[in-house]
Amino acid sequence: MRYYDTFQSPQGGMLLLANDEGLAGVFFARQKHHPEEQADWKKNPGHRILRQAKRELAEYFAGKRKHFDVALAPEGTPFQRSVWKAISAVGFGVTISYGELARRAGHPGSARAAGAATGRNPLGIIVPCHRIMGSDGSLTGYAGGLARKRALLALERVDQDLLPLSY
Questions:
Q1: 145: which residues sit within 8 A by CB, 6+ positions away?
Q2: What's the pLDDT tens digit per position in 129-166?
Q3: What's the number of CA atoms in the CB half-sphere (13 Å) around residue 134?
Q4: Buried b vs exposed e over 64-95: b needs ≥16 C-beta within 10 Å?
Q5: Total number of domains constituting the chain
Q6: Would you say 128 and 90 are in contact if contact means Cβ atoms under 8 Å apart?
Q7: What confidence tens digit (pLDDT) does each residue in 65-102 have?
Q8: pLDDT over 90 for what percent of the chain?
Q9: What phi, psi does 118 have (nearest 5°)?
Q10: Residue 130 to residue 111: CA distance in whole angstroms
Q11: Does residue 28 carry a pLDDT above 60?
Q12: Which residues are part of the catalytic machinery?
């Protein structure tokens, strides 16, 4: 069973999805790969995972949270999940390139594939794909839009002109 609720962030409305194991999705309205509501989904604002996710997102946007503790249950291929796990290890206020992400995920030389997996990340913000940059430090691709990526990095106080890439 999938449960859902919405969350109003400073960057717009969000859809949150959960199952009994953990949070399965966090999507901005109108972002790429936004799922369509399914008949077997149940709206449940009181679901423990959804309540925790909303609380932690509110704390993040208020500048009071730097990492998330909510249990996660994303669905994806083994390659995607390895990339998402590597993204989860990128610290608050730190950015890395797609090439470095591929290396950390155990797939050196697969920057493009890591980029594609990043674009399919179902747990935006929680799995902080906004911290992944082009090899030259430029803002590239973000399913929620580059304006949101810029805003999330600003929230984390990453200087937009001198994006520090960790190699």
A1: 28, 31
A2: 999 999 888 888 888 889 999 999 999 986 544 444 44
A3: 9
A4: eeeebebebbbeeeebbebbbebbbebeeeeb
A5: 2
A6: yes
A7: 999 999 999 999 999 999 999 999 999 999 999 999 99
A8: 78
A9: -60, -40
A10: 16
A11: yes
A12: 129
Cβ within 8 Å of residue 163, ≥6 positions away:
95, 133, 137, 138, 139, 153
| CA-based max dimension of the chain | 46
- Domain co-membership, 116 together with 155: yes
* Percent of the chain residues topping a pLDDT of 70: 94
Q: How many residues does the chain have?
A: 167
Parallel, antiparallel, or unpaired for β 2-9 and 23-28? unpaired
53 plus 86 within the same structural domain: no
Residue 70 lies in a domain: no
